[in-house]
Backbone:
C-alpha cells in the first residue's frame, strides 16, 4: 500500500502471536526498548484458532511484571488487526509511537549509564522492537 | 440419670424441655453474662453459652458457664474442637464438672475464616463425634483417651447439634445416627423456619428409631426484620428460610414486623410440641434475649414444671 | 507433585538488595510442571529482576542455572565449581530444594524465590489444586478415595458439618465440600452404608505434629 509508518519501530515477525513468550517481551525492554506492542489477528480469526487469545493473556501477565519492576505496564500493548488492514497498521503504529513519546524513554535507560556491567546473558535474540 | 443435670431430669421426666442461649461479651465484664442469665431465670431448663461463635473472640463459654452456675442457673458448656486439642479438651471437661457445670454441647465449630482472627492456626485434632465419644468415655469408663484411669468422674449430660437443613440432606440423619452411636443424649437443631423439611427429617429420624435413643430439641429463632430474614437466607450456610416466610414478614407494616416474627416463633413451637420425637425447644433469640420469656409464655411453656 | 508459586518480585528484590552477583537456580522437577521454578521461569525471573535493578541503578549479575532436581545430593554437585563465585543463591525450587542447597553450600546464603504451597494435582492447564497433606497414615480406602483431612476445611473424619451447602464448603463458595464429595463417591460406588461407620480419632504422630519426619530403608542403603 506504500503507506509509511514511524521509523522508530522495529518489527519482529512471528508465524502467530501465539508464539509470543513472556520472556521475549521482557528481553525487549531489557535491550532498550521504550515500548513494545504485539499485533495479532482479529479475535476469532486466528489461523491457529486461539494463538492470539493466548498472546493476550501473556501480554497481560507481562504488563503486571512490568508494573512491579517499575518499567510500567502501559509501555506494552496488544492490538488486533487483519493482515489486509494496511491503514489500521499505520494507525496503530502512530498511536503507539505517540503514546511512548509522551511517556518518555524507558526508566531503565536513565540508570543504564550508571551501570558498568552486563546484567544477564541475552542469548542472541532479535528482540529489539519498538 | 447419668449426671446431676436439671435438663436431663426434665427430659427423663418426660417434660417438654426449654433451653436458650447467651452470647458472652467481647470483653472481661462478668456483669454482661450475669444480666443475660438473670433475664432467663425461671424461663428455661438450661442456658447454653456459645464458644467463640463464628470464630469471633469472646469471653470463654467455660468461664461464662461458671458465672451462670454461681448465680444459680443451669449452664450448658458449648465446646468446639476448632480451638483446642484433646489434651485441653479433656482438661476442660474435668474442670467444667468440678465447677458444677452439668451439660456439654459437642461441636466442631465454625471455621476461623468467619471470625476476626482468620490468620490463626486451627486445631481440629478431633471432630464433634470424637468429642461425644470422649465425654462418654471419661464419664462411663472413668478413663482418659490415652487409657489411664482418671480419679473423679466428670458427670456431664452430653449434647450435640444437628442441622436438618444442610446438605447433603440424605446424610443428615446418618450423621445423627453416628452421634447417637457415639453416645449423645440430647440434640439441639439449627433454627427451624422450614417446618415441612424439618418434618421430613423427623420422619427419617423416627424410621431409624433414633427418637427413642436421643432427646431432640427443635431450634427456634424469632425473626426481627426482613433484613435479618434475608441475611439468614443468603449469608448463613446450612440455613433454610422459605420465601413464604419472608413474604409473610414483608406483608406486615414495618413497625409490626418484629411482632410478626415473635408470632411465627410461637407458632413454630406449638407445631413442634405436636411432633412425635421432639422433646423440647431451643430458643435462640439472637441479640434479642429479652424476648425469650415472652415467647416461652405465649407458647404455653411457662411456668416450668418442677422436678418430681 | 509439590506445587508452589513465585513470590512477589518486591519480596525477592528485598532479599537480594545488597547483592551484586547471584546464582539463580531453577529445578526440572515438580516446580517445572507447575510453572513456578523451571528453566522458563528462571529466564523470566532473571529478566524481571534485571529490569528492576536497572531501574534502581544498582548493578546485578545473574547466572542462570536449572538443575535436574534440588532434592537429590548428586544434582546439587553440578554447581559446586561455580558456587563460590557468587554472593548468594536465589533458588526457585520448592522449600525442600532451597534447604538442601543451604545444607550443601553452608557458606553461601540461599534465598527462596517461590512459596511452596501444597502437594497436589494439575486440574487443567494453569490450575493446580491441593490433594494431600501428608498425614503419614493414609485413610483413602475408608473414604472412597477422597481425603477428609485435605479436602475438608475442618479435617473432619465424620463429616459433613452443618455448614455444607449445595456441595460447597462454608469457607469458600468455590471450594467443594469434601464430605459431599465422599458421600457422592460412596453413592457411585454403591456403598453408602460406609457413611454410617465412625472413623476413629486420628493418631497425628505420623504427621507434622509428631515432629520432623524421616524414613530409613536399610535395604536400600549402600
Residues:
Amino acid at each position: 500500500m506504500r503507506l509509511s509508518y514511524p521509523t522508530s519501530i522495529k518489527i519482529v515477525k512471528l508465524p502467530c502471536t501465539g508464539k509470543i513468550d513472556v520472556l521475549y517481551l521482557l528481553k525487549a525492554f531489557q535491550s532498550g526498548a521504550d515500548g513494545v506492542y504485539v499485533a495479532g489477528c482479529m479475535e476469532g480469526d486466528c489461523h491457529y484458532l486461539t494463538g492470539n487469545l493466548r498472546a493476550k493473556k501473556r501480554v497481560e501477565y507481562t504488563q503486571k511484571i512490568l508494573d512491579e519492576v517499575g518499567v510500567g505496564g502501559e509501555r506494552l500493548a496488544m492490538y488486533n488487526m487483519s493482515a489486509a488492514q494496511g491503514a489500521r497498521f499505520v494507525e496503530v503504529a502512530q498511536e503507539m509511537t505517540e503514546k511512548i513519546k509522551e511517556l518518555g524513554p524507558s526508566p531503565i535507560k536513565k540508570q543504564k549509564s550508571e551501570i558498568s556491567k552486563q546484567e544477564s546473558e541475552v542469548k542472541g535474540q532479535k528482540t529489539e522492537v519498538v | 440419670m447419668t449426671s446431676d443435670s436439671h435438663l436431663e431430669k426434665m427430659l427423663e421426666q418426660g417434660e417438654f424441655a426449654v433451653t436458650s442461649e447467651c452470647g458472652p461479651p467481647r470483653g472481661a465484664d462478668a456483669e454482661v453474662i450475669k444480666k443475660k442469665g438473670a433475664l432467663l431465670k425461671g424461663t428455661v431448663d438450661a442456658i447454653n453459652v456459645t464458644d467463640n461463635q463464628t470464630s469471633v473472640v469472646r469471653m470463654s463459654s467455660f468461664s461464662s458457664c461458671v458465672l451462670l452456675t454461681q448465680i444459680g442457673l443451669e449452664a450448658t458448656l458449648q465446646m468446639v474442637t476448632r480451638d483446642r486439642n484433646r489434651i485441653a479438651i479433656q482438661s476442660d471437661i474435668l474442670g467444667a464438672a468440678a465447677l458444677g457445670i452439668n451439660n456439654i454441647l459437642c461441636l466442631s465449630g465454625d471455621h476461623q475464616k468467619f471470625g476476626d482472627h482468620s490468620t490463626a492456626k486451627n486445631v481440629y485434632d478431633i471432630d464433634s463425634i470424637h468429642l461425644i465419644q470422649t465425654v462418654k468415655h471419661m464419664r462411663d469408663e472413668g478413663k482418659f483417651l490415652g487409657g489411664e484411669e482418671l480419679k473423679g468422674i466428670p458427670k456431664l449430660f452430653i449434647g450435640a447439634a444437628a442441622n436438618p437443613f444442610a446438605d447433603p440432606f440424605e446424610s443428615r440423619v446418618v450423621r445423627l445416627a453416628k452421634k447417637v452411636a457415639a453416645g449423645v443424649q440430647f440434640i439441639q437443631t439449627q433454627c427451624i423456619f422450614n417446618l415441612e423439611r424439618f418434618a421430613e427429617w423427623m420422619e427419617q429420624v423416627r424410621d431409624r428409631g433414633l427418637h427413642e435413643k436421643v432427646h431432640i430439641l427443635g431450634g427456634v429463632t424469632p425473626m426481627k426484620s426482613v433484613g435479618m430474614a434475608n441475611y439468614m437466607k443468603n449469608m448463613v450456610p446450612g440455613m433454610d428460610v422459605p420465601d413464604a416466610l419472608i413474604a409473610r414478614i414483608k406483608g406486615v407494616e414495618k413497625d409490626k414486623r418484629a411482632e410478626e416474627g415473635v408470632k411465627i416463633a410461637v407458632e413454630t413451637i406449638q407445631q413442634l410440641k405436636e411432633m412425635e420425637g421432639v422433646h423440647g425447644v431451643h430458643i435462640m433469640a439472637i441479640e434479642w434475649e429479652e424476648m425469650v420469656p415472652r415467647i416461652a409464655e405465649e407458647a404455653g411453656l411457662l411456668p416450668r414444671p418442677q422436678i418430681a | 507433585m509439590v506445587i508452589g508459586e513465585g513470590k512477589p518480585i518486591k519480596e525477592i528484590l528485598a532479599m537480594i538488595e545488597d547483592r551484586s552477583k547471584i546464582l539463580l537456580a531453577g529445578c526440572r522437577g515438580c516446580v517445572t510442571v507447575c510453572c513456578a521454578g523451571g528453566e522458563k521461569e528462571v529466564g523470566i525471573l532473571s529478566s524481571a529482576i534485571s529490569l528492576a535493578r536497572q531501574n534502581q541503578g544498582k548493578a546485578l549479575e545473574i547466572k542462570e542455572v536449572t538443575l535436574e532436581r534440588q532434592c537429590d545430593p548428586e544434582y546439587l554437585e553440578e554447581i559446586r565449581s561455580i558456587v563460590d563465585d557468587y554472593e548468594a543463591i536465589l533458588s526457585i525450587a520448592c522449600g525442600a530444594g532451597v534447604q538442601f542447597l543451604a545444607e550443601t553450600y553452608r557458606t553461601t546464603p540461599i534465598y527462596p524465590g517461590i512459596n511452596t504451597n501444597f502437594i497436589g494435582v494439575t486440574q487443567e492447564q494453569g490450575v493446580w489444586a491441593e490433594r494431600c497433606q501428608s498425614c503419614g497414615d493414609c485413610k483413602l480406602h475408608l473414604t472412597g478415595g477422597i481425603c477428609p483431612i485435605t479436602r475438608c476445611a475442618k479435617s473432619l473424619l465424620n463429616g459433613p458439618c452443618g455448614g455444607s451447602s449445595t456441595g460447597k464448603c462454608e469457607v469458600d463458595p468455590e471450594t467443594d465440600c469434601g464430605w459431599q464429595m465422599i458421600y457422592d463417591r460412596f453413592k457411585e460406588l454403591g456403598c453408602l452404608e460406609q457413611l454410617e461407620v465412625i472413623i476413629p480419632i486420628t493418631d497425628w504422630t505420623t504427621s507434622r505434629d509428631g515432629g520432623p519426619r524421616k524414613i530409613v530403608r536399610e535395604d536400600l542403603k549402600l
